[in-house]
Amino acid sequence: MSKKVLVLAETREGSLRNVSFEAIAAGKMIADGGEVISVLIGNGITDVVNELVAYGADRVITVEDAKLEQYSSDGFSQALLAVIEQENPEGIVMGHTSLGKDLSPKLASRLNSGLVSDVTAIEADGDSPKFIRPIYSGKAFEKKVIKDGLTFITIRPNNIPALEKEDGRSGDVSSVSVDITDLRTIIKEVVRKATDGVDLSEAKVIVAGGRGVKSEDGFKPLKELADLLGGAVGASRGACDADYCDYSLQIGQTGKVVTPDLYIACGISGAIQHMAGMSNSKVIVAINKDPEANIFKVADYGIVGDLFDVVPLLIEEFKKV
Ligand code: FAD
């Protein structure tokens, strides 16, 4: 049965995040031939609406206000609620990102509706779509079916492929005006940590280091390899706790969840909490001097050896390509 589905787009510094396009693809599966409407909330954001249409949105609704320049729970809730009230959808999809993790339970509880979070795949074969999500820190997966009523769905970034971009596709664009009131928090300034290179959560290649890297300096060859492959550097909590790198690089249950095309784990033992954040990567390469290390259980390619010998060899080889 076809459905009307709202899909929340996410921007960062004026550009759409990839998860916005993946959410449209998820919305299409849920809508089953029904309408998929992208909702874009912010200030001065209309430049990107055509991109949402090109990636499959049938319509785009914008909510613009100076008070929506930065994400706030109160502001974005009011904006999205106004669109929900106007459109009366059956499903609302957003990324399982910091924003989605904050907004979806808040609104689901406010509207007394369902929520399926952290969805990594959707089976849509004509019946009610089945939502697949990891449980027990990724040790198992469960399949959920929604009976009826409004449901919020958050999708894990980098798992549901976006549709092919179709430039020149047409779709209606309209706006909803909302009087944003009673904001309990106002962001006055955003101080960004200087980052060099690729955003870890969207990187296609990640070279991650663990306690085996042994020092801050030990991360230098990993960074060189990541740069060479156009990727980003990540870390285990072991490496962060040991102060070899910043916690913003932590991957795992209490860090970032990543699904790059290639994940190179260097000196990481493969604790369940680390694997919860990376085991869905497409190809995993593990470098560890302990042949019994747990990480080899999820690795597609395992190299038993000292990372300080292996990583320079990889750098040398990739430089030839
Ligand atoms: P270790 O377990 O010490 O492993 C180091 C590895 O390096 C070993 O396998 C060793 O053989 C290898 N090694 C050493 N030297 C070399 C060398 N020269 N060359 C090659 N290999 C070498 N962890 C996370 O990563 N992310 C999380 O989000 C996370 N959340 C957690 C949440 C909770 C509630 C708890 C309790 C724990 C959490 N942890 C998390 C911690 C997790 O349990 C592990 O302690 C941590 O992942 C271990 O990090 P590690 O693999 O770098 O270190």
TrEMBL record:
InterPro entries, sorted: DHS-like_NAD/FAD-binding_dom, ETF_a/b_N, ETF_a/FixB, ETF_alpha_N, ETF_asu_C, ETF_asu_C_CS, Rossmann-like_a/b/a_fold
GO MF annotations in UniProt: electron transfer activity; flavin adenine dinucleotide binding
UniProt xrefs under CDD domains: ETF_alpha
The Electron transfer flavoprotein alpha/beta-subunit N-terminal domain, residue ranges: 5-195
Cofactor binding summary note: Binds 1 FAD per dimer.
Keywords: Electron transport, FAD, Flavoprotein, Transport
Pfam families in the record: ETF (PF01012), ETF_alpha (PF00766)
Binding, FAD: 211, 236-237, 250-254, 267-274, 288
One of the GO biological process terms: fatty acid beta-oxidation using acyl-CoA dehydrogenase
Needed co-factor(s): FAD
Signal peptide range in chain numbering: none
PANTHER family assigned: ELECTRON TRANSFER FLAVOPROTEIN ALPHA, ELECTRON TRANSFER FLAVOPROTEIN SUBUNIT ALPHA, MITOCHONDRIAL
UniProt family annotation: Belongs to the ETF alpha-subunit/FixB family.
Name of protein: Electron transfer flavoprotein subunit alpha
Naturally occurring in which organism (per UniProt): Jeotgalibacillus alimentarius
Lineage summary: Bacteria, Bacillati, Bacillota, Bacilli, Bacillales
